[in-house]
Amino acid sequence: MQTLTSTSVEVRDVRKTYHHHEVLKGVSLTVPAGTVTSILGPSGSGKSTLLRSINRLIPIDAGVIRVGNQIIGYEERGGVYHELSDKDLCRQRRRIGMVFQSFNLFPHKTVLANLVEGPQTVLRRPRRETEEEARELLALVGLAEKALQYPGQLSGGQQQRVAIARALAMKPELILFDEPTSALDPELVGEVLDVMRRLADTTDTTLIVVTHEIAFAREVSDQVVFMADGRVEAAGAPAEILDPDHSPRIGAFLARGRS
């Protein structure tokens, strides 16, 4: 299995407005390198917007996001922030993997070809090396025997596991998961969560997970962040934040999750 490095994330007073509606209202958050952070909260609280801002799929209106020692989307020269070119932004994003709700696999390519596409075309790595690593990653997610099948031949849970392996193939320092089980049938959720647990246990890669899976967040996370109304309402250890008595808002959210 390849060795993956990790990086820290610093979000400072980030704001984002859509059509006169402020979705992120001065969000600040620290994610130490090599840790797992789960972001919970009701729908519309800004969780996915924050996640997509971290790799600048969504440009922010104000604030600063640092991944390691780099300001995402900008370069600081002489105390002034200069927006990066598309080429330089793509170079920054190579350090960040992302797993979406929908699997976003190439339907006309085999599972193996989906995994090697990025390392070969973006990183210019040798074919034999990338294929060997891709097969190791498929074994990690329990799909070694599916290498030559196509996405349409797989279940939704299997496709999402392929998407996780594809993110890992780029050797990211940070992986962002945007509600990776929300599009799955209930009986397929467990297999994806099991892969994510294994990933948290066997690599040092920094993971940030937007999820409604409270039991997963409690079990796997080093930190739980609760968002509501575009703000971080609470952040800390799972046992603290996921205590129903922590606050009325969190208690109500947890109660809905149990219903």
Automatic annotation (TrEMBL):
The record ties this protein, via SUPFAM superfamilies, to: P-loop containing nucleoside triphosphate hydrolases
Molecular-function GO term, any one: ABC-type amino acid transporter activity
Cell compartment(s), UniProt: Cell membrane
Annotated signal peptide: none
Residue span, ABC transporter domain: 9-254
Q: Which UniProt keywords apply?
A: ATP-binding, Cell membrane, Membrane, Nucleotide-binding, Transport
Q: Does the keyword Cell membrane apply?
A: yes
What GO cellular component entries does it have?
plasma membrane
An example Pfam family from this entry, by short name, is: ABC_tran
User: Which SMART domains does the UniProt record give?
Assistant: AAA
Q: Which InterPro entries match?
A: AAA+_ATPase, ABC_ATPase_HisP-typ, ABC_transporter-like_ATP-bd, ABC_transporter-like_CS, MetN_ABC_transporter-like, P-loop_NTPase
Q: Which Gene3D superfamilies match?
A: P-loop containing nucleotide triphosphate hydrolases
Report how it sits in the membrane: Peripheral membrane protein
PANTHER family to which the protein is assigned, alphabetical: AMINO ACID IMPORT ATP-BINDING PROTEIN, L-CYSTINE IMPORT ATP-BINDING PROTEIN TCYN
Supply the name of the protein.
Putative transporter subunit: ATP-binding component of ABC superfamily transporter
Q: Where does this protein come from, organism-wise?
A: uncultured Microbacterium sp
